[in-house]
Amino acid sequence: LQSVSFSGRTFELIYGTIFGCFPVTLALSLQAHLYSEVVTALLITALIIARTRLQWDGLGIGILVSMTLAQLLSWRVVFQTPELELATKLFRLIPLMFAAALVLRYSRVESIGQYLRWPGLYLLGINFTVAIYLLTNPISSLLPGVLWLVLSVIVLQIAHSIADPPGKAGGNPARFLLQIGYALILLFLARHVFYHLQVEDYMAGVKVRIVIALFAIAVFALWALTRKRAEAQQYKSWMYLHPLFVELLIVFAVATIALEVENLYLPLVWILSAILLYIATRNRTGTLSRLRFYSLVFGWASALQLAVVTSTLQTPSPDVFVQPTTVGVINLILSTIFLTLLGKNPYLDQISFPSALTFLTRTVDLIDRKRIAWTYYPFFLSTALFLYWRFDSAILTLLLVGECFVIFGLSIVLRIVHFKTLSMFALGACLIRLVVFDLAQSGTLTRGVVFLGVGGIMMLMNYLYKRHKSALEV
Amino acid sequence: MNTTRVILLVLILAGASAIVSYLFVNPTASSLRPTLAPAFQLAGKSTQIADQLLTKVIPIDELDEKQLGEAFARYFPIDTSDSVDRYLNDLISNLSHYARKPFKYRVAKVNWGDVPNAFAMPGGVIVVSTGLISIVKSESELVAVLAHEMGHVELGHCFDMMKFTMLSRKITNMPLGELADFAYHLLIGTSFSKTQEDEADDYAFQLVAETNYDPRGISRAFISLMTFETTKAHSDTSFNPVRDYLQSHPATSLRANKFSEKADQWWKDHLLTPRYVGVANLQRRESYYRHELHEEWVYE
Q1: C or N: which end of chain A has fewer Cβ atoms within 10 Å?
Q2: For residue A303, pLDDT beyond 90
Q3: Rounded mean pLDDT of A449-454?
Q4: How are the residues of chain B apportioned to helix, strand and coil, as percentages rounded to the nearest 5?
């Protein structure tokens, strides 16, 4: 050993680390005592002050090891003795949180000429997260998830408001705060899936889990609305992860709706979402313009649900408002409104996606090239299938002629000439069905009603054609 | 900070205060165990849409299902001299007034020892085990079980499961009796998905709410089943994602909890509406429709 000669820096590293680890031994020997954390935190505080004065890097490493292990011991004690009173739990948790705050405050490292913020920030973030769990989980399993979201909002606000000068000298606190925020959101999502979704209790007439989901949606919206301040540093998380909060919000909302809303009303919810999303973003430029594309996806979901599920759904209730037929008809009216809105604007033009989703640009371009087909034909097909599977074959011809009339009407309103041709072909097919099927198989009364109805609709189409001839022959 | 963000922030803080205060005062679900069952149920919805689409594309219709139902009825004969068979069919014939499909609903009783089970087959044939009849404590619970099985038929779940078998019968001209035999063994060995079970539960709740029976019958039927499971040491509440995925039915405790809360909400809206329980009716094997007992009506 005598032959080994240490340089000053190596000495600082080795002995600093050893000294820094002393509080762990203290914490281990005192863990059963109430004042264990206070004493450990005091020793750590003394070492932090010493490290700031001496600037021994090894001491810093030792302090971090001590902090981590002492905290694990403290959490284990609180976790394994849930019968402890709230005040006692706080008394055991707060001292080390205070020490973590000191690690953050005194984080200047002269050897690298910058502040080292991440250890203190991570320690504080983990401390708060675990403390929330340990203190509130025994009261209600729903509290930790909600409070983690609140903590994520606080973290976001701090990250957004602090001065974050360029370069690494300041320690880039905003970057690490954002990372803590993302981790909290992930923890909430896991908690929601594993715990909240099974809760059926009500809060003022609404399921508690729905209230929590709505709260989460508001939090995600705040994250999505928060933009990097012009003078702040540009991190990869601001560029790639942060814009995806819009997608997180939509996916979370869709999952919540699919779980909470009855199958009967789902097509209505999807088509209303499509309309609202379109109206809210029709004049938007920038990356939020992508919501117009999502509104079309909602429209497709509504069309699919209507054709596949609503068309054969049964309900035991005689109430007219809970009948799949009623819901289907309302859905068709809303779909027509949606299609009319889409037809008034080239809604897929100038849509842009954030960096992480640029691969969707090509998909939107492909759809835009055949915009009419992708926008309208899924709805026309879904309507025909809904009518076919839902209604009695005796009145099917009349209903299909009604659909032809709506397509014809759209050709006038939207000035899409080939819809006129489509409606005429479809009308021809309906007339063949009228002669071949209805004449042969329907009862006299039904046959009379269908003939009169079809005749009336055709006369109306003829009247509209004459009136809007110029528009239809462009 | 722009105005929208400020408003949202204020709303979030107000919402958080309200939720946290509520949960502190009403410590909801303080000892939950983690489960992925609801998540798997949600994931099943998308595959169910694909399955339903496939069912619609295959050229089989309600008439085929009705014919198959007739074949099943021959497979499970009903003994009209048996009081339990009469009782069960009396209940289902009254419940089937709420059905929309053109089937004659029938209930057959089978003896599988003390195993409580019930399942539905295409065409409106429902099979109930004697074990199930022995664990339910009232007619409203039994009606809930029958309504659940009716839900499977009305919502086309049986048809979805049988579509390929029925199509092969059409193609190969398999006799109906042979098909019924095959289908019985198919249905007894497989189960509906969690998503379908959840839909049938919701259908049952709607149906029971339309009748004069107590909507709590559904949650009580699940509680009776849970009591049986606990007695037989079938209950396992530990966290096991593989079990959550493979389980055909949502966890019984979750279903009991869901419909207990739903019934509570229903009663809040119908404080002055009496509902029928039928404990004595079940014991006497005489349905409410035949013999109404004054003491069986309950209020909230």
Answers
A1: N
A2: yes
A3: 89
A4: 65, 5, 30
Which of A466, A465, A307 has its CA nearest to residue A380? Answer: A307
Tell me the chain A residues in contact with residue B5 when contact means C-beta distances shorter than 8 Å. Answer: 222, 225-226
Q: Which residues contact B179 (CB under 8 A, 6 or more apart)?
A: B68, B71, B165, B166, B169
Contacts of residue A402, defined as CB under 8 A and 6 or more positions apart, other chains included, come to A457
To the nearest whole Å, the CA of A287 is away from the closest chain B CA by: 18
Amino acid residing at A128: F
Residue A2, pLDDT score: 45
Q: Do B156 and A312 count as a contact with CB atoms less than 8 A apart?
A: yes
Q: Return the axis-axis angle of helices A444-467 and A417-433, rounded to nearest 10°.
A: 160
Name the residue type at position A441.
Answer: Q
**Is residue A296 within 8 Å of A342, Cβ to Cβ?**
yes
Residue B257 at interface with chain A, using a CB cutoff of 8 Å: yes
The most confident of the ranges A227-241, A398-412, B112-126 is A398-412
- Residues 237 to 276 of A: which have CB under 8 A from any B CB? 255, 258-259, 262-263
Look up the pTM and report it: 0.86
The CA distance from B41 to B232, in Å, is: 26
How is residue B274 annotated by DSSP? -
Measuring CA to CA, which residue among A311, A351, A348 is closest to residue A329?
A311
Look up residue B6 and give its amino acid.
V
CA A270 to chain centroid? 16
CB distance B122 to B72 below 8 Å = yes
Q: For residue A452, is pLDDT > 80?
A: yes
In this prediction, residues A98-102 reach a mean pLDDT of 88
| Adjacent-strand bridge partners of B121 | B125
Query: Alpha-carbon dihedral of residues B131, B132, B138, B141, nearest 10 degrees?
Result: 170
Which residue in chain B is spatially nearest to A217 when comparing CA positions? B12
Q: Which residue has the higher pLDDT, A339 or A287?
A: A339
* Interchain contact A154–B (C-beta under 8 A): no
User: Which amino acid belongs to residue A66?
Assistant: S
User: In the prediction, which pLDDT does B250 show?
Assistant: 59
**ipTM tops 0.95:** no
Dist. CA B134–CA B285, nearest whole Å: 12
B135/B132 Cα distance (integer angstroms): 5
As beta bridge partners, residue B108 has B127
**Closest residue on chain B to A199 (Cα):** B29
Mean pLDDT comparison of A325-339, A392-406, B116-130, highest-scoring range = A325-339
CB B198 within 8 A of CB B250: yes
Most confident segment among A247-251, A258-262, A448-452, B152-156? A247-251
**A201/B contact by beta carbon, under 8 A:** yes
A194: which chain B residues are within 8 Å (Cβ-Cβ)?
A: 34-36
Question: Mean of the pLDDT values across residues A4-11?
Answer: 64
pLDDT (0 to 100) of residue A385: 94
Tell me the C-alpha distance between B215 and B202, whole Å: 11
Neighbours of A103 (CB within 10 A): 24
How confident is residue B161, by pLDDT bands cut at 50, 70 and 90? Answer: confident
> For residue A38, which of A27, A49, A29, A22 has the smallest C-alpha distance?
A27
Question: Per-residue pLDDT for A430 more than 80?
Answer: yes
